[in-house]
Write a structure and sequence with these properties.
The complex is a heterodimer of chains A (428) and B (662). Chain A has 16 helices and 17 strands. Chain A is an alpha/beta fold and 428 residues long. Chain B is of the alpha/beta class and 662 residues long. Helices cover 49% and strands 12% of the residues of chain B. Chain B contains 28 helices and 17 strands. In chain B, strand 2 (59-63), helix 4 (66-80) and strand 3 form a beta-alpha-beta unit. The chains are: A alpha/beta (428), B alpha/beta (662). The A-B interface holds A 15-16, 95, 97-99, 103-106, 120, 124-125, 127-131, 133-135, 137-143, 146, 167, 169-170, 176-177, 278, 300-304, 405 and B 336-342, 344-345, 347, 351-354, 357-361, 381-386, 509-510, 512-513, 551, 553-556.
Chain lengths: 428, 662
């Protein structure tokens, strides 16, 4: 049976993260979204780790579940249509800031661990190196290669994944403080890197353009800082529901075990194009090249986006399809679709209520976005929403690309669509 | 000419070359900060070996720390290859240690003596005091007094001394010797005594070492100076390098005028001055030179540099130490180019693309007093910025490391009472403090070591006796085993079989890491026969005075005192608490304090911030503070000043702004 996994999230112990990121909320929102395996995030944080040990219990090998007495009280508030089992995987992100080859590097890496004792083995060592208390995603002055070595020594069965591999400031390929290749970053240990996370601003076809990633599996996760953002990217798996099952699906990239990834439209990501947020200057890679990567407004160099960076490192032609290519689904979060239909903000009461009602009648969010027949959506959510979802599924989307930390904006409906459909019930 | 050496000689500037190629001596090289002191000394050694064909065994080069010696050997190896291994490169202490091991029997020292570390000294002093019927709580201070007493007596200028002190000193010394131990301080005193009294040894040593080279000459204390004098005799083959302006150890008895008196001590001495610095910007060189010029007792030395111009020195005034700490955190975050996406998003980091980003290791935050680092430690901890407080936790002082070393010492020499007392109840085996005291008394009475006393004791209860006997059996077993395993495996064996590892890791799993690190340090002796390896390893552990667990592979901001920063360099230095009362320190010697300021300042390669607070909470009370006079001792044009407004005034303004919005 296939299931969805979102393994990179943060707890309330990380900076700039919602106070609501607690095991109970993760459990609740995983069901609303249709996620079976959710990462715990932040396992290096002592208080969060203690909370996890207190609230979770072992389920399938290497996975955990919320203790039944805690789950029961959450279940009451979840529509019948969405109720499902949820498993937790122990995961964490580490921010390494260090000098390598005479340059300052900033790389975020993920560790997926198969159990509390593996976590303890790793964090005991990391606690000696730096401060794990002040941030759920600790900053360590530790070379990524060393971090990988520590993991291989202390928890060899765990999985190491460079996080959002293309973001400019904090990633393995980042334009500002990353590397040009995995070898440059991980040295002799680079063969241990089998999997990378693509991040919101890149999608699989962009990554296929690098021959150095020909043998690497691409995975996707939400990096959610609040429960509602869970699953905005995720993995669709078909293997054994266990830590090893998931790890095998990832490392093998076997299309029978790993059915594909759920993606943002990469243009929607915060760092897709080049630009300057403060100057409101957005440049495509070609435009940036004609401006010598200098902001036409302020004259300072622009922040180089993921698209441009991929083009710099690409050695396969545009459109090249990797031998290991897996299917992927580019989706727009349901609240954004509803918000567009009603012309209201995503956080408004009306949109929230419409979201809740749709889930209660049609099932979890991924069901609605990916599987529920358009006719059923139209019946319960109106013509415009059905049209928007239909277009999204077909990839028929207009997007103003994100740049320099500013999310891109998606547009699925035109003015004509709205005029054609006067039947839409007013939201308020 | 050896190509390597030819190449390196060409890379020296004229003064450096003059110093490196100077005749036999005596030569004093005055080397300002960043002027290539270590390089010149290394080239000097290489030159003597390769060009003057001096045998490596005839070179004696003395440094102040083991780390400096190791660094120098590495550099020398690159120039002359394996010959470097045969040069004596070490500290004054390690020189005397080896000398006394070989020849100490002429002073009736045991052939296999060990060196008492700080804790051993305290334990032994406590026992001596108890035996004399005196309170033992002031053992630490008494040690200090005893050392001072010894030095006074050694220099012969102490006719009147406290008879009680003499008695304590004698009792302490006797106990020390009964354990076959010398303390650190004695190594030097006895080394000098040996060379002075035994003509044969002295002549032999003088014969053997055709050249004596000394690093950090300004830090040579009177005993060390005496040692040099005896070593060199009238052969004058001394080559010393140092900088009086960087002499900051007056509190250890080093005389700051020492460098000034070189020609007095060595009348035909020649002096070469290195003034061109390769470390810092012209701005930093100018500020440093202008400030230090206010010292009266110094040699003329004006720093200059051909390095590119940099920014002015940044002087920042804060309302209090919290504001100072917060500013430092922000500054580091900014200059590292942000430590999180959040900072980028909130616009807290500006213009990161056009500027070269630093990493944490490029920063040092320096303070005159360790107490000043407390609010900074807290701010850095909260910020999540990786940092290390240098000079705090010494690796060889860590619990499990001390335990293992004690077992190793006992296995090396079971009559080492201090180590034996340490392992007696670690891990706990039911031998409490009272039993231990009884045992010690018994040993004392019968003139036995603790180890022997344990075997014969009549005072122990049967269960205690069983526990004690099992310890003896354990130690016998360990002693038998030591010949069979490489040292690093032997250490693992000892930690396991004694139950130490299980006990300590049960208390805190991190002890396991310390144990691993200890084994990896020991691994370099694995090739040797374990008996020899063990001895050398224990010597290293004892002589490595300040080996902290500094892990160079970790990128972190360094937070430390100016004293601890000596000899180091950083891209950017933030000097905190540049205030009257802390720099210069109240009642401190003004010239020494100015040298400290100078040393702090000259650790920086590119940027310096001099920070002071208008109010500071220190030693239990909050006081108003004045900016340091040193900030007035250099040209205004070299500084850029920022004044951070008082907290109070700002918080008054906020409600007004809010009411405008309302």
């Amino acid at each position: 049976m296939s299931f969805i996994a979102d393994l990179h999230i943060h707890s309330r112990y990380s900076r700039a993260v919602s106070k609501d990121m607690v095991p109970e909320s993760l459990y609740r929102w995983a069901q609303l979204k249709g996620i079976t395996v959710v990462g715990t995030g932040d396992f290096t944080h002592p208080a969060w780790f203690a909370e996890l040990q207190e609230k979770l219990e072992p389920a399938e090998p290497g996975l955990y579940r919320l203790k039944p007495e805690l789950a029961a009280s959450v279940d009451a508030g979840i529509p019948e249509s969405c109720r499902a089992d949820v498993r937790f995987m122990l995961t964490s992100e580490i921010s390494s800031i260090y000098k390598r080859h005479e340059r300052t590097r900033k790389v975020h890496n993920l560790i997926f661990a198969p159990g509390f004792s593996a976590v303890a083995n790793v964090t005991d060592r990391l606690a000696r190196i730096g401060n794990l208390h002040s941030d759920g995603r600790p900053i360590l002055g530790l070379d990524s290669e060393e971090l990988l070595r520590i993991m291989l020594e202390r928890a060899p069965e765990a999985l190491f994944v460079p996080a959002h591999a293309w973001t400019p400031h904090f990633s393995v390929f980042g334009a500002n403080s990353g590397f040009d290749s995995l070898e440059e970053c991980f040295g002799e240990l680079s063969p241990h890197i089998r999997v990378i996370e693509t991040g919101l601003s890149s999608d699989p076809p962009m990554n296929w353009r690098l021959s150095q990633l020909d043998e690497i599996t691409l995975i996707s996760n939400s990096d959610a800082h609040s429960p509602g953002k869970l699953g905005r990217e995720a993995n669709v798996l078909n293997g054994d529901l266990s830590f090893d099952g998931i790890k095998t699906a990832f490392t093998s990239g076997d299309p029978a075990l790993f059915l594909g990834t759920i993606e943002f439209f990469p243009e929607e990501g915060k760092y897709h194009y080049d630009g300057h947020r403060n100057c409101q200057i957005r440049l495509s890679p070609e435009e940036a090249r004609t401006h010598d990567s200098v902001c036409p407004e302020c004259g300072k160099p622009v922040t180089r986006g993921v698209m441009h960076r991929v083009e710099m490192l690409a050695d396969h032609p545009a459109g090249h399809r990797s031998r290991r290519a897996l299917p992927y689904w580019s989706l727009v979060p349901l609240v954004e679709l509803i918000a567009e239909v009603y012309g209201a903000g995503v956080n408004t009461k009306g949109v929230t209520e419409a979201y809740r009602q749709l889930l209660a009648t049609l099932g979890n969010e991924f069901e609605i976005l990916m599987n529920v027949p358009v006719a059923d959506i139209e019946e319960n959510g109106g013509k415009l929403l059905a049209l928007a979802i239909q277009r999204m599924r077909a990839g028929n989307v207009t997007i103003a690309p994100g740049y320099d930390g500013e999310y891109g904006t998606v547009c699925l409906l035109s003015q004509e669509d709205r005029q054609a459909d006067s039947s839409q019930m007013p939201l308020f | 000419m050896n190509v390597e050496i030819k190449h390196v000689l060409e890379s020296l500037n004229d003064r450096q070359r003059e110093a490196a190629l100077a005749g036999d001596g005596p030569v004093l090289v005055i080397a300002g900060p960043g002027t290539g002191k270590t390089k010149t000394l290394t080239v000097r050694l290489a030159y003597l070996l390769a060009e003057r064909h001096v045998a490596p065994e005839a070179l004696l080069a003395v440094t102040f720390t083991t780390r400096a010696a190791l660094g120098m050997r590495e550099r020398l190896e690159r120039l002359v290859g394996s010959q470097a291994d045969r040069v004596f490169l070490g500290t004054f202490h390690s020189f005397c240690f080896q000398l006394l091991r070989a020849e100490g029997h002429r002073l009736d020292l045991p052939r296999d003596f060990g060196v008492a570390d700080q804790r051993d000294q305290v334990t032994i002093m406590q026992r001596a005091l108890r035996r004399l019927g005196q309170p033992d709580h002031a053992a630490q201070r008494m040690l200090h007094d005893v050392f001072a007493f010894r030095h006074r007596r050694a220099s012969g200028n102490s006719p009147v001394d406290d008879p009680n002190l003499a008695e304590i000193s004698e009792a302490y010394q006797r106990d020390l010797r009964k354990c076959d131990l010398l303390d650190f301080d004695e190594l030097l005193l006895l080394g000098v005594r040996l060379l002075e009294r035994v003509d044969e040894v002295r002549e032999d040593i003088r014969q053997r070492f055709a050249h004596v080279l000394v690093d950090e000459y300004q830090d040579v204390d009177p005993v060390q100076r005496e040692l040099l004098r005896v070593l060199v005799g009238d052969r004058n083959h001394l080559w010393a390098v140092g900088d009086g302006d960087q002499a900051i150890y007056a509190f250890r008895g080093v005389e700051s005028e020492h460098v000034l008196r070189f020609e007095h001590h060595y009348p035909n001495g020649r002096v070469v001055t290195l003034e061109q610095s390769y470390r810092f910007t012209p701005q930093i060189a100018a500020v440093a030179s202008q400030v230090i010029r206010h010292n009266a007792s110094r040699r003329r030395l004006t720093l200059n540099t051909a390095n590119a111009s940099g920014s002015p020195v940044h002087v920042v005034s804060f309302p209090d130490e919290q504001a100072e700490a917060a500013w430092i955190v922000r500054q580091i975050e900014e200059r590292v180019g942000g430590t999180s996406h959040y900072q980028h998003y909130k616009g807290k980091v500006t213009d990161t693309v056009s500027r070269r980003e630093q990493s944490f290791r490029d920063f040092a935050v320096l303070c005159r007093l360790h107490a000043l680092t407390k609010p900074l430690q807290e701010a850095l901890r909260n910020s999540g910025i990786p940092h290390r407080v240098v000079g705090e936790a010494r690796f060889f002082d860590k619990k499990i490391v001390k335990d293992v070393l004690a077992y190793l010492r006992v296995s090396h020499n079971p009559h080492d009472d201090s180590s034996f007392a340490h392992v007696l109840n670690r891990p706990p085996r039911g031998i409490g403090a009272q039993t231990q005291a009884a045992l010690e008394a018994e040993a004392e009475q019968q003139g036995l070591s603790l180890y022997d006393a344990l075997g014969k004791s009549v005072r122990l209860s049967s269960s205690q006796l069983r526990a004690a006997r099992s310890l003896v059996t354990l130690i016998e077993d360990v002693r038998r085993n030591k010949e069979e395993k490489p040292l690093s495996r032997f250490i693992a064996h000892v930690a396991g079989v004694t139950g130490l590892r299980e006990w300590r890791t049960g208390q805190d799993p991190r002890h396991d890491n310390d144990l691993l690190l200890l084994r990896s340090i020991a691994a370099k002796y694995d090739e040797m026969n374990t008996g020899t390896a063990l001895r050398q390893f224990l010597e290293e552990a004892t002589l490595a005075v300040a080996v902290d667990d500094y892990d160079a592979s970790i990128d972190a901001v360094s937070l430390m005192t100016i004293h601890a920063a000596k000899g180091l360099e950083f891209t950017e230095v933030m000097l905190c608490g540049v205030e009257e009362g802390s720099l210069p320190r109240e009642n401190g010697d003004l010239e020494e304090e100015r040298r400290l300021f100078y040393v702090g300042l000259t650790r920086a390669k590119e940027r310096v911030s001099l920070l002071h607070c208008r109010s500071r909470f220190l030693f239990g009370s909050r006081r108003d503070r004045e900016a340091s006079r040193f900030l007035q001792e250099f040209d205004e044009s070299l500084k850029e000043t920022t004044v951070i407004a008082d907290r109070l005034r700002r918080s008054k303004q906020e409600p007004e702004q809010l009411s405008l919005l309302g």
